[in-house]
Amino acid sequence: MSYRLQRMPVAAPSVLFAARVLSVILALLTAAVVLALSGKDPVALGGKVLSSTFGSSFGLEDLSLLFSPLLYCGLAVAVGLRIGAWNIGAEGQFNLGAFAATGVALFVPGPTWLLVPLMALTGMAGGALWILIPTLAKAYADVSELITTLLMNFVALLLVYWVATGPWLDPSGMALATTARLSVSVPYVWGIVHWGLPVALMLAIGLAVMFAYTRWGYEVRIGGGNPGAAAYAGMPVQRHVIIVMLMSGAIAGLGGMMEVAGTVGRLQGGISNNYGYLGIMVAVLARAAPLGVIATAFFMAVILNGGIVLQSQGLTTHTVLAVTGLILFYAAIADEVARYRLIPTTGKVTPKGAR
Amino acid sequence: MISTKSLSRRGFLNMGAAAGASLILPKTGVIKPAYAAGPLAPVAEADAHIAFGHTGPTSDEGWTWAHDQGMKAVEAAFPALRTSYVESIPYSADATRIFRQFVADDACMVFATSNYGDFLYDVAKRAPDVAFYECDGRNPMDNLGTYYVAHWYPSYVAGIAAGAMSKTGKLGYVASFPVPSVYSGTNAFLMGARTVNPEATLQSIVINSWFDPQAATQAGVALIDAGCDVLFGIMDEAGYLQVAEERGAKAVMWNTDLRRYGPNAYISSIMVDFGPWYVEQVRRRLAGEWTPTYDLLPFGAGVDVDAWGETVPADVAAKADAVKASILDGSFNPFMGEIKDSKGTIKVAAGQTMTEEELYHWNWSIEGVSGLDS
């Protein structure tokens, strides 16, 4: 008796989960071998990463502040994927959200309770505005959003660099290449962890509920899965594309607002810290499920924070990037492998379609 | 005004170097008396952990490499202590996480070799027992000092050679960000060049990074395409020197001797040496003498022009060397009025001389420099 591989259209959740766990273990083992070969003690380093990340309030604060922007960007990309749109521009929308919120903080006087919600709204509007042209181009002219959203990132980044070093430069001369410290900030919930995190978690749960239990969520899922069938069934696919993509941009923009007004306190180039691009990985690993994004964004935050701990232990950024890449690489392979199963082949030829 | 003069001067005199200038922080903003809390407690050498945070890789053969040499000097002077460093720290909340990690790892002294601003201050505020230094910093705190180099003098001297060797009278500058070190570098360089070529101008291109060899190379190509035949910049690596070598132009570099990347193009470099300064600060920290200082390493003791490149004519070198000698002996200060900004407004009146603080905080371009003022 011999065996052959069969590819399944979808992987069983239990198999997928097992494959994920196995992939992380394999990646860590590979990394451990590489570290041991380069003369480091992988067990001691691993222990250091865990104790520095989970063993102190400093570590948990850092982890939470990484978790929050990854959630926003992961959710932004995941929402887009639900309607079949690849939003590669979360990085730019994140920057624009930070930019718009900073504009409010710098030029609109008012109390914190009024300004923070107003900044959140303008941040969302900024993010949505930044994806508006790619959205309209996709909805009405069938222009691939992959390219248009990506290109808008560079414009957003240069815009932030320009205002932070030019018109909005801190006039005190105390800080270089950045705006003045914002007069209002997102209130803290624990230590230096601000409301950005709980809001992001609520957003993830809210989106999961909307996709699972509302007619709108159902139509979006169908429209993303098979636009032709959805249109044939009378669903307004074009309208859903527009609304969902604008939502995607708004979520990333809100993430940018929380980062500038909660974590960083000033607008400056580099504020996005690649969260927009990391969000793509978060969303893909979560298979665009909002609740899955919570898990994968947390996983990514642990990896990134671990990377920072490893750097302070004398590993170069290149080694850390390689380990990070390795884990994601294995995870991606595991996803694909989980779709295959081994089935025994008998000598008898099974006719097509027969069982 | 903060009276740090005696402190930092004493530090430099102890090192046997020329007196260092101390920096007075800008007139606006909150100025509080620093180190009101008194010196930090001594640390036994064997228990000490000294941490360095860098903006680029230590292999850059430039700025970060020079600071890494400083760390090696500390290791040689205090063999029992522990050092650690992190390279390529972005200007984002990741910087805060890395500096916090140093503190969590029991560092008693942390050097940020670039201006990380609030990303560093947020950590320093919550770690009052740790001594912090920020290179090119501007914010006094009880446990945070700043240090930098008076690079405008060697930039002026190199500018004289550049002006003499430029045929087009157009100088190019690869800038990181429109920040004071770039304003002072471009202005001083053009002022030097104009002593030999009064019609010279300087075009700068901002690439938003201190270490991005690809962008620096592209900027170098664009500047030469625009007619510039001598390039200067404030990059941590040799990218635009190689462009100048290929295109038959000249270049002045920063940080280290990079002539082997472009022997024909190389004019000189703004050389930095932080070693003795680092050793002195670590000694003060271990001995329980440390209070924050605001130090500017002076021309000739921490920052200098490199030996002239092989294609620099002898008479040009002699002329620049004579000016260098007159700056070093105090008989000449290049930064005297009248100086106009790029809009034609007189910013420094005739007869006035810019102070070291004004040079450190320089944030406007002189007439003839383009590409920085927005």
Automatic annotation (TrEMBL), chain A:
One Gene Ontology cellular component: plasma membrane
Its localization reads: Cell membrane
- Keywords associated with the record: Cell membrane, Membrane, Sugar transport, Transmembrane, Transmembrane helix, Transport
Q: Which domain of life is it from?
A: Bacteria
Q: Does the keyword Transmembrane apply?
A: yes
Show the Pfam families listed in the entry. BPD_transp_2
MF-aspect GO terms: transmembrane transporter activity
Q: Which InterPro entries match?
A: ABC_transp_permease
Q: Which regions span the lipid bilayer?
A: 63-81, 88-108, 114-133, 145-164, 192-213, 241-258, 278-303, 315-333
Q: Report membrane topology.
A: Multi-pass membrane protein
Tell me the protein's name: Simple sugar transport system permease protein
Protein source organism: Celeribacter baekdonensis
Automatic annotation (TrEMBL), chain B:
Q: Does the keyword Oxidoreductase apply?
A: no
Q: Which residues form the ABC transporter substrate-binding protein PnrA-like domain?
A: 50-289
Q: Which GO terms describe its cellular component?
A: plasma membrane
Q: Which domain of life is it from?
A: Bacteria
Pfam families assigned to the protein according to its UniProt record, in alphabetical order = Bmp
Is Signal among the key words of this record? Answer: yes
Coiled-coil positions: none
Alphabetically sorted, this entry's keywords are: Signal
Identify this protein by name.
Nucleoside-binding protein
Organism equals: Celeribacter baekdonensis
